[in-house]
From TrEMBL:
Limits of the Thioredoxin domain: 34-205
Protein name as annotated: SCO family protein
Family, per entry: Belongs to the SCO1/2 family.
Disulfide bonds: 73-77
Amino acid sequence: MQKALIVIAAIIAAAVGIATYQFWPQPQPEALVYNPPRALAPFQIESTATQQTIDNDALKGQWTLLFTGYTFCPDICPTTLSDLQRILPELQQHTDQPVKVWLISVDPKRDSLERLTQYTGYFGDAFVGVRAEHPQLFPFVRDLGLMYSIPEEDEENYLVNHSAAIILVDPDGNRKAIFNADHKPGEIPVVDMQQLKRDFAIIAD
């Protein structure tokens, strides 16, 4: 009789535990998460990883953080890439899939594949530079939900205005989330890397 009561009590405790877990509020990402993930339109773009043209399949089998920028960028780009380099090992702890960073150059006039290779190589093997001319580049960037400005043809020394947000693409090659930059007076707009780490842990797990 006593053993039966113990078994019954254990079953009740387990049921209560499961119910509590199911109804207890679970942590939610602060980023904008797409459920279901959104497919990307077909694209073709040059990559420093292969030194040739790639397509949507290059995003499959890995988590990818996509960021628009350019090698002549004085502030947002080197800051963001350095921050991502710093947290990348922590992101990798939450998944068995590789975590990669794509720098999408929005300055095809000055950013050759060779220059991009040298630039992204500084940050490590997980960093890939991709480029295309504006007719292919602009639709690709716009499909990601990002933007950039195109300078006049005769301009030589110029800045390119571009989004500071980071797009997360899942291992199926679909857009999963967007991490928007913080815009604070007197500071360059950059993504909160602590938030990105917390959100990625929730999304990837």
